[in-house]
Amino acid sequence: MSHDVILEAKGLTKEFEGFTAVNNVDLRVRRGSIHALIGPNGAGKTTLFSLLTRFLSATRGTIRFNGQDITRAHPADIARRGLVRSFQISAVYPKLSVLENVRLGLQRRVGSSFEFWRRESSLHGLNARAHELIDAVGLSSFVGHTAEELPYGRKRALEIAATLALDPEMMLLDEPTAGMGHEDIFKIAELIKQVAANRTVLVVEHNLNVVAHLSDTITVLQRGAILAEGTYADVSNNPAVREAYMGT
Ligand code: ADP
């Protein structure tokens, strides 16, 4: 595996009682890139995400992250290695404030290290870092609001901040702009670009404008298999993609 490939799946297959949801997928994600996964409903995008983060076990195939075989690793172990999936809104604690939600993520990374918690400066550092992240996702004016009080688009931003608090080397984002209005979509797209400045991002995204704007590489899935791969120009000019996905 070449050094600039951070995540590599080979022959990844998931069968559900005879139905093949992901079929022999080879995927290589370049370090530092924004890689989009697109395809019609039911193409297998979410299943592929779950396989990569080990929320589901593959029927066949291998996964390597940073050169190490993670095919059978525990999901928590994968997160510790730096591959983190941004959860659906439900993973943000609704009754906790924006600050508390982000700080919780930061605390989780620190764990229960006695040396850390013994120092008063650690707590100040933690708070300062939480405020930095909150600033970065544009939530400064919502710091004291509970998560459930936030408008929809802001909740997604909080979810990204809570994921960033874990300082992952690579983030998997599952439809970050789903259900958003135009203005929020634009904000989240900008946020993802910013997040990706020093990370790798793999994103499932339906909005093709966002995909075109963000992605270095796009993989198109259809019925569980890879239909095409390349830049936005490559895939949008691919006749098979136009026919199968864009309906032209
Ligand atoms: P996408 O995210 O691209 O919309 P999914 O990965 O959710 O696609 O689903 C791919 C296919 O696998 C769908 O046909 C879906 O019905 C099927 N599928 C997903 N999860 C399960 C499951 N747990 N059991 C059986 N079939 C499933």
A few lines on this structure:
This protein has 10 helices and 10 strands. By secondary structure, the chain is α/β, with parallel strands linked by helices.
Write up what this structure looks like.
- This is ABC transporter ATP-binding protein.
- It comes from Imbroritus primus.
- Keywords: ATP-binding, Nucleotide-binding.
- Strand 1 and strand 2 form a beta hairpin.
- The chain starts with a strand and ends with a helix.
- The chain has two domains: 1-82 and 169-248, Rossmann fold (3-Layer(aba) Sandwich), CATH 3.40.50; 88-167, no CATH class.
- The chain has a six-stranded mixed β-sheet, sandwiched between helices. Strands 2-1-4-5 form a four-stranded antiparallel β-sheet, with helices on one face.
- Helix 3 crosses helix 5 (120-136), helix 3 runs parallel beside helix 6 (152-164) and helix 6 (152-164) runs parallel beside helix 7.
- The radius of gyration is 19 Å and the shape is globular.
- The protein contains ten helices and ten strands.
- It has 248 residues and is an alpha/beta fold.
- Residues 16, 19, 21, 39, 41-47 line the site of adenosine-5'-diphosphate.
The poorly predicted ranges are none
> What is the makeup of the main sheet?
6 strands, mixed
Radius of gyration: 19 Å
The CATH architecture category of the largest domain equals 3-Layer(aba) Sandwich
What name goes with the CATH superfamily of the largest domain?
P-loop containing nucleotide triphosphate hydrolases
Query: Which strand order spans the largest sheet, edge to edge or round the barrel?
Result: 6-7-8-3-9-10
Distance between the termini: 37 Å
Question: Per the principal axes of the C-alpha atoms, what is the gross shape?
Answer: globular
CATH fold description of the largest domain:
Rossmann fold
- How much helix, percentage-wise, in residues? 25-40%
Number of distinct beta strands: 10
